[in-house]
TrEMBL record:
Protein name (database record): Polysaccharide deacetylase family protein
NodB homology domain sequence ranges: 63-271
Subcellular location(s) per record: Secreted
Classification lineage: Bacteria, Bacillati, Actinomycetota, Actinomycetes, Kitasatosporales
Keyword field: Hydrolase, Signal
Entry EC number(s): 3.-.-.-
Cited Gene3D superfamilies: Glycoside hydrolase/deacetylase
SUPFAM superfamilies reported for this sequence: Glycoside hydrolase/deacetylase (SSF88713)
Alphabetized GO MF terms: hydrolase activity
InterPro entries, alphabetized: Glyco_hydro/deAcase_b/a-brl, NODB_dom, Polysacch_Deacetylase
Organism this protein belongs to: Kitasatospora misakiensis
Main location: secreted
Length: 271
């Protein structure tokens, strides 16, 4: 089984809003992490290469990694994309479509707190530059706490504006907060997405579930030695593995708090 670290980033900035700061790495740290990936001998491959392998296609290289980014923050355009372009690295950007604005227009509407987000013109430019654009719902809800119809609308409706703006099919999806369930994954398949990324804080593999691809979330306080271990395919479990009892309990709690109108906050880091 080939172990594949799939790195998950959110924002790369020196001055994020307070709510986003724990999920933000500085540009300097990001540069150092890209250097560590290169120094480890890993080849960064597009997510679709891993997805093809998961669906029985050609295997991925033995020493490879994948870069993914969630939500669609404006710093991806100004800070991340130039570094990726300079190094010739592919990446996938999962976009919360309700948060994207028209150029010069007001911020989009989503459940994400205020932050600088991409606009549609920047998104199409990134697509032209070779960044894979994927769906991340319309408003960024916890999908596994929603009634079935509402969850499906979030999963399916985010594709239309992306395909209209980009002019081609969009096939990759990521769960907000990393949360899914068997029912949610069935809806993702029904909506026509060919892959979906979770979190799991585990190393993916060519035997992973294509609708529950494990990723390693890079946080503001991720120690350098931990990131280094990930580049060497150590320091985290390798997927696939059975869903943790703790994860099931956390889902049940979040569903209860959602029903009571008091949605729970951030998950445990291994959730």
């Amino acid at each position: 089984m080939t172990a594949v670290p799939v790195f998950l980033y959110h924002s790369v900035s020196d001055s994020p809003p307070g709510w986003l700061a724990p999920y933000t790495v500085t540009p300097r740290a990001f540069t150092e992490q890209l250097d560590r990936i290169a120094d480890s001998g890993l080849t960064v491959v597009p997510l679709h290469r891993l997805v093809a392998a998961l669906h029985g296609g050609p295997p991925v290289p033995e020493d490879c990694a994948v870069l993914t980014f969630d939500d669609g923050y404006a710093d991806f355009y100004w800070t991340v994309a130039p570094q990726l372009d300079e190094r010739g690295l592919p990446a996938t950007l999962f976009v919360t479509t309700g948060a994207i604005s028209v150029p010069g227009g007001p911020p989009g509407r989503s459940l994400l707190p205020p932050a600088g987000m991409l606009n549609w013109r920047q998104l199409t430019t990134l697509d032209t530059l070779g960044v894979e654009i994927g769906g991340h719902t319309v408003t960024h809800p916890q999908l596994d706490t929603l009634p079935g119809r509402r969850a499906y609308e979030e999963i399916a409706r985010c594709r239309d504006p992306l395909e209209e703006a980009l002019g081609h099919r969009v096939v990759s999806f990521a769960y907000p907060h990393g949360y899914s369930s068997a029912a949610v994954r069935r809806q993702v398949r029904r909506a026509g997405w060919t892959s979906a990324c979770a979190v799991g804080n585990a190393i993916s593999s060519d035997a992973d579930d294509p609708l529950r691809i494990s990723r390693l979330m890079v946080m503001a306080d991720t120690p350098a030695e931990v990131f280094q271990a990930w580049t060497r395919r150590r320091g985290a479990p390798t997927a696939p593995y059975p869903e943790r009892l703790r994860t099931r309990g956390w889902r049940a709690y979040r569903r209860l708090t959602a029903v009571l109108g008091r949605p729970a906050g951030s998950p445990p880091r291994d959730g």
